[in-house]
Amino acid sequence: MKLATWNVNSLSVRLPQVLEWLKTNPVDVLVMQEIKMTDDKFPADIFRSAGYCAEWFGQKTYNGVALLSRTQASDVVKNIPGFDDDMARVITATVNDVRVVGAYFPNGQAPGTEKFEYKMEWLKGLRDWLKTEMPAHPKLLLMGDYNITFDDADVWDPQGMRDQIHCTDEERYHLNALIAMGLTDSHRLFAQAPKSYSWWDYRDFGFRRNRGLRIDHILVSAALKPLVKSCVIDTTPRKNERPSDHAPVVIDIA
DNA sequence: ATGCCTCAGCTCCTGAGA
């Protein structure tokens, strides 16, 4: 079973690229973030024609998430139960007995801002919910745009970005707390090329110079960990005309 | 350099992203 996550940065703009990518990469599940459209605009019919069922949770201008699957998803949950949020950031569903959580973690802007505080509260809310969701669904993936790096290896300029957004100890505390709950970073289960990133700034030829961050992650539960066959960041779509700033991450599970 | 791109919208500038 192959699953992927991709922050598409506007599904309206990226729809042709998503369809093209799915043709070459016929994954069983694709979770998308930042679809940036209201529910009535979601192109469910087009995905249906491409062979995918869809669940979506949209929002105007910002945020918005969706989950595509070859087979019908069930038990769909939108956002984090128990955590009040007016932003559409999480969509969860069961596909082939696997619980898939697709999430767009808050950006946080900068330490010391209200948005950073919201990011911290959101991360706590996510964890509180997972405390019950994980035991209820032993086979679980938490995948999406985390907007947090694990360590220096995920950062093109660790010195320059020290204590900056995506790289602060506070954010990494919450990321490591997810690991402490029994989740595993599937990317690090395998030998990966050095300087493997999933996001590159549009400005200053970020991609061409490989000035990036690894902030899109696929974490797996203990029951899934031994079944993971590979985890790959696909930089191909970043080479398109008008690309998303993020690349898809793909996991293969036995 | 409170910028550099890109996207959406109360659209020809601004806020937000990361």
Description:
The chain is of the alpha+beta class and 254 residues long. The protein contains four helices and 14 strands. It has helices at 11-24, 44-49, 114-136, 169-180; strands spanning 2-7, 29-33, 53-57, 65-69, 74-78, 90-95, 98-104, 140-145, 184-185, 199-200, 212-213, 216-220, 228-233, 249-253. The chain has a six-stranded mixed beta sheet. It has a six-stranded mixed beta sheet with strand order 5-6-7-8-12-9, with no helix packed on it. It binds one DNA strand of 18 nucleotides through residues 9-10, 12-13, 34, 36, 60-62, 107-109, 115, 147, 164-166, 199, 201-204, 206, 213, 215, 242, 244-245.
Biggest sheet statistics: 6 strands, mixed
CATH A-level architecture? 4-Layer Sandwich
Work out the radius of gyration: 17 Å
Briefly note the structural class of the backbone.
alpha+beta
Q: Overall 3D geometry?
A: globular
Neighbour order of strands in the largest sheet: 3-4-2-1-14-13
CATH homologous superfamily designation:
Endonuclease/exonuclease/phosphatase
Taking pLDDT < 50 over at least 5 consecutive residues as the criterion, the unreliable ranges are: none
Ends apart, CA distance between termini: 6 Å
What's the rounded overall pLDDT mean? Answer: 98
Helix-residue proportion: 10-25%
Strand content: 25-35%
Total tally of structural domains: 1
The CATH C-level class name: Alpha Beta
β-strand number: 14
Give the topology string: H per helix, E per strand. EHEHEEEEEHEHEEEEEE
Instruction: Look up the CATH topology.
Output: Deoxyribonuclease I, Chain A
Helical stretch count? 4
